[in-house]
Design goal:
The protein is an alpha+beta fold. The chain has helices at residues 2-15, 29-37, 56-66, 90-101, 127-136, 201-208, and strands spanning 71-76, 79-85, 108-114, 118-123, 155-158, 175-178, 192-199, 223-229. Helices cover 27% and strands 21% of the residues.
Length: 233
């Protein structure tokens, strides 16, 4: 067993040499896996089942009533970003707060960056993020776009799963922030806007300016080090 464990750890270190799959700073492999296995935080110990298309709506409705926080702070490689989550997109707010308390977003990346358009985060191609998703469940959120919001600069919105998804249901683990000056209003009606930046647009501008490859992935990974709850405004 000890020999097998050493082999697995060595294999992990070898795999981490790739630009987009390196072991994320500030956490060791063992501590992250343990965090996922223990459901990450005491606040979410109540979630002892996998979320699915069948149970997620009732769960989030109840979760939102018990967890009313609506402001969060993203700590990134370029500084901090404060976001206000909207009350009337209740499923999306509850989902974001739940994932924040489970520390899902910690050490994910801004993996799609397009200058003067959007920065998109909440994902990574490393195995730790995949394990976190598997520990939470597989589900989509409704497209709740008709709340009077527009994709103005600084709005936070949720991308849609783009395969077999005629109702444009949202991918719950990812989000994008509009960086475009004047907004990106051609996106209105297609995606759910569920929050806005209240501090840190200079950080978003800095991230949007980084060099990227042909798939819009930054040449130098841009990490979301953590997202934490601030308070309820």
């Amino acid at each position: 067993m000890r020999i097998l464990l050493v082999f697995v750890l060595n294999l992990s270190l070898i795999c981490c040499q790739d630009k987009k799959t390196e072991v994320i700073t500030n956490y060791g492999m063992a501590s992250i896996v343990k965090s996922v296995q223990n459901d990450s935080t005491q606040e979410t110990s109540e979630v002892d089942f996998l979320l699915t298309e069948n149970n997620v709506m009732n769960f989030l409705l109840d979760y939102g009533k018990k967890n009313k926080e609506n402001t969060v702070r993203l700590t990134t490689d370029y500084g901090t970003i404060d976001i206000l989550l909207f009350e009337n997109t209740k499923f999306h707010r509850a989902n974001f707060i739940m994932l924040t308390k489970k520390k899902y977003f910690d050490n994910t990346q801004f993996y799609r960056v397009i200058s003067d358009f959007v920065i998109q985060g909440g994902n990574s191609d490393d195995r730790i993020t995949l394990k976190k998703r598997q520990a939470i469940g597989k589900y989509l959120l409704p497209n709740d776009y008709d709340r009077g919001y527009k994709h103005d600069r600084g709005m936070i919105s949720m991308p849609s799963k783009n395969i077999d998804n005629p109702y444009k249901k949202a991918s719950p683990f990812e989000f994008f922030i509009v960086q475009q000056k004047g907004g990106a209003h051609h996106l209105d009606g297609d995606y759910t806007i569920f929050g806005k930046v209240i501090k840190g647009m200079d950080v978003i501008d800095a991230i949007a300016a980084v060099p990227t490859d042909k798939s819009d992935w930054p040449l130098q990974n841009v990490f979301i080090k953590e997202i934490k709850i601030l308070s309820k405004l």
